[in-house]
Amino acid sequence: MFTIKSDHGLSEAGYDKIIEWARSILPKGNRLKENFYAAKYMMKPLGLGYQKIDMCPNFCMLYSLENAEMTECMTYVHSRYKPRTGREKTLVAYKKLRYFSITSRL
């Protein structure tokens, strides 16, 4: 179900509606989790996390390793973070890469 959710860009509410429908047609006593939160909580102990890495909006560089402290792209001189619009306390990157380590999955 997680694969279907990510492949089709389903929201959590959409996922929950599909699960609600699936549970209604399954026999009583089924073990299908009741919503996205419960399913995600069940998967957490597997240790299949990921690492978030900021990247340039033009996809030309990653802000990791020796570039982790940079605030502008080396190629296009584009800002790493979105401009603040009010009372925001944290900086928000334009784009993020989610790195899934293959070694922990094997």
What would a concise description of this structure say?
The chain is an alpha+beta fold. The protein has helices at 2-7, 12-25, 36-43, and strands at residues 51-55, 95-99. The protein is elongated.
What can you tell me about this protein's structure?
The chain is α+β, with helices and mostly antiparallel strands. The protein is 26% helix and 9% strand. It is elongated and about 60 Å long.
Q: What are the segments in which pLDDT stays under 50 over at least 5 consecutive residues? A: none
State the helix count. 3
The largest beta-sheet arranges its strands as 1-2
Strand runs, count: 2
pLDDT averaged residue by residue: 88
**Proportion of β residues?**
5-15%
Ends: how far apart? Answer: 21 Å
Largest sheet: 2 strands, antiparallel
Classify the helix fraction into a percent range: 25-40%
User: What structural category arises from helix and sheet content?
Assistant: alpha+beta
C-alpha geometry? elongated
Give the H and E element order. HHHEE
Radius of gyration: 19 Å
Task: Outline the fold blueprint.
Blueprint: H1 2-7, H2 12-25, H3 36-43, E1 51-55, E2 95-99
Antiparallel strand pairs: 1-2
What descriptors fit this protein?
106 residues, alpha+beta, two-stranded antiparallel ribbon
